[in-house]
Specification:
Blueprint lengths: L8 E7 L7 E6 L5 E6 L30 E7 L27 E9 L2 E9 L9 H39 L4 H21 L17 H12 L8 H38 L14
Helix pairs in contact: 1-2, 1-3, 1-4, 2-4, 3-4
């Protein structure tokens, strides 16, 4: 029995010898803008995040190119990069999966030991559909906005957790002034985290008991927009704007907490001859 063809764009490339350095494949849209990039170097496995139905599947390793002497093959899944995640994240009826590339002209650029070659190709839509290029463009545009706002929310949760881990030892110090200040800052940061993510989730079905928060709502709208080959509904735009406004408000609070308030806290502990908190800043896509 024959094999089903790979689901995506298949790129075959021949290397005379095994390259000494990194080999990359970069996929570009018709305007020459990057869509995604892959490497022969091993990338770290992303932290697991739950999928559409709340289950937490085994997270696959990032796609990695083969770079062997002779004929090689790489299959691009026709998607933009996923949204960012964080350890233990559980979502319901939504996911971090990147948007599908719209039908149209693309090119793939391969770079080996500093030398590049480019080949064009086309993603063709289902001929039975009446969806226009403008419809697909609108869907992709909103999907990327949703993905990026989801990444920003998830990155904020990661940032809060890193800072809280540093602040917690201060909250247990004998110096009451330092301990109280640390507890107050932790409380404010935790309030932002709890607005962005349902922190009570521990198992895949917990979202049935606890209401989903902003990042899960964004992930759900992204799944809805990506669920068909049509342009987004007016309701999808409206809900995105509402959610984005709420996320932006929480991110603004976090900026204040990690700016002026963290600076004031560090001044306090310096005055008390205690080592300062170091802010490791991470941003979304």
């Amino acid at each position: 029995m024959g094999e089903n063809p790979p689901a995506g764009a298949t790129v075959f490339y021949w290397l005379k010898d095994a390259p000494k350095g990194e080999v990359t494949l970069e996929f570009l849209d018709a305007a020459g803008k990057p869509v995604d990039k892959f490497s022969s170097r091993e990338a770290p496995r992303p932290e697991a995040a739950a999928g559409e139905d709340g289950e937490a599947p085994r997270q696959p390793a990032p796609a990695r190119m083969a770079a062997n002497a002779g004929l090689n093959r790489f299959v691009w899944n026709l998607r933009y990069p996923d949204a960012s995640s964080f350890p233990g994240m559980i979502l319901w009826a939504g996911s971090i999966t990147g948007p599908r590339a719209a039908p149209g002209k693309y090119s793939v650029k391969m770079t080996v030991d500093g030398q590049s070659q480019t080949q064009s190709f086309e993603v063709i839509k289902d001929p039975r559909l009446e969806t226009t290029a403008e419809d697909y463009a609108k869907q992709l545009s909103l999907s990327l906005q949703l993905r990026d706002k989801l990444s920003a929310a998830n990155a904020a949760v990661t940032r809060i957790r890193e800072l809280r881990a540093q602040l917690e030892p201060y909250s247990k110090r004998d110096d009451r002034k330092v301990a109280d200040a640390a507890k107050a800052l932790i409380g404010k940061m935790t309030a932002v985290e709890e607005a962005l993510y349902q922190t009570k989730n521990r198992a895949s079905e917990d979202p049935l008991n606890y209401p989903i928060k902003l990042n899960n709502k964004l992930a759900h709208v992204l799944s809805v927009v990506q669920s068909s080959d049509n342009q987004p509904t007016s309701q999808s735009y409206t809900v995105y704007e509402e959610l984005a406004t709420q996320v932006n408000a929480e991110l603004k609070k976090l900026e204040s907490l990690t700016g002026a308030e963290l600076t004031a806290f560090n001044k306090l502990i310096r005055d008390e001859n205690v080592p300062a908190v170091e802010e490791s800043r991470k941003t979304g896509q």
